[in-house]
Design brief:
304 residues; alpha+beta; Rossmann fold; Tumour Suppressor Smad4; 2 domains; 16-stranded mixed beta sheet; 16 strands; 34% strand; disordered N terminus
Length: 304
């Protein structure tokens, strides 16, 4: 659990928003409701395949999202602007491939019936961004370098057809090793809270959580509710360090590896001709990109 957790009380109604294409038989409507009853919540259920769920997610209910990181983002996208004046309260039942948000929150993987579940509350910041098509926010991270290249490869051909989560993550690490070996580092200029930097990088990630993609925990000390981002920088001189870390994940050794990181509230970036990503969405390269990012503190609360 993260150190900023505080006790939250008084919420006894919930709505379960379930992505039926994620998870397995354990994540049935019956089992999800049973888990909520054990925690002391009266819960209704909505499939995210039915658009009617939006009107059912009112302010008196804890919003329980059963799905992966993409499902969490899609729910937040629908509810964010319509509820601009209030702090939305969510919980996550991880049922995706990587579940990076749930892992940062310390959400349990199991569907055990636990009366203490959903009683600890983690503030969660929002990243606001301008300069990237029609997107305006991120929950996880924005970045350039080898990770967008990996996303592009994973969306092609047979990789798109892999359904087993463990196999998909294993294949992602294999591909990432190939990508790092041949990748031309990206030249980037940026202003981090008034401090100007430039250089060539394998990765630049503006992060709000601990890990991205196939559980790349490049920001292991992240607190998503501290009112700041972590800017993770992996320059061209750290190619072998990045390869070594990825190989440790591929072999199951899972070495702890710390990369250059600084705290920031406001970031300006410029780069040319390279793809970027915003959460799990790939942004295709343009001739020149100028990005502005700032933090909106304590935009949400997540219960675990």
């Amino acid at each position: 659990m993260l150190s900023r957790y505080v006790y939250c009380s008084g919420m006894r109604k919930a709505i379960i928003l379930h992505n039926p294409n994620a998870g397995d038989d354990k994540h049935s409507e019956e089992n999800l409701k049973k888990m909520m009853r054990a925690a002391g919540y009266e819960a209704s259920y909505e499939s995210l395949e039915d658009d009617s769920w939006v009107s059912s997610a009112d302010e008196d209910k804890l919003i329980v999202i059963a799905g992966g990181d993409g499902t969490v983002r899609s729910v937040v996208t629908e509810l964010l602007e319509a509820n601009a004046g209030r702090v939305l309260k969510f919980a996550v039942v991880p049922a995706g491939t990587a579940n990076n948000i749930a892992k940062t929150l310390g959400a349990p993987d199991s569907m055990e019936e636990d009366p203490a579940r959903f009683s600890s509350c983690q503030p969660f910041d929002l990243g606001r961004i301008t300069g990237v098509s029609d997107q305006s926010f991120f929950l996880e991270s924005f970045g350039i370098g080898v990770f967008p290249a990996l996303m592009k490869k994973m969306s092609e051909g047979e990789h798109e057809e892999i359904s087993d989560p463990d196999e998909k993550i294993r294949r992602a690490h294999e591909l990432l090793e190939e990508i790092i070996a041949d990748f031309e580092p990206v030249y980037c200029e940026f202003d981090i809270d008034g401090s100007v930097h430039s250089g060539k990088f394998f990765m630049v990630e503006i992060m709000n959580i601990r890990s991205i993609g196939p559980n790349l925990a490049i920001n292991p000390l992240a607190d998503p509710g501290d009112g700041e981002f972590e800017v993770v920088l992996i320059p061209e001189a750290q190619k072998e360090k990045l390869l070594d870390y990825n190989r440790s994940l591929l072999t199951g050794e899972k070495k702890s590896q710390y990369f250059d990181t600084c705290k920031a509230k406001n970031i300006k970036m410029s780069f040319k001709g390279n793809a970027a990503h915003l959460d799990d969405e790939l942004l295709e390269p343009t001739e020149s990109q100028k990005i502005t990012i700032y933090v909106e503190p304590h935009k949400f609360e997540f219960l675990t």
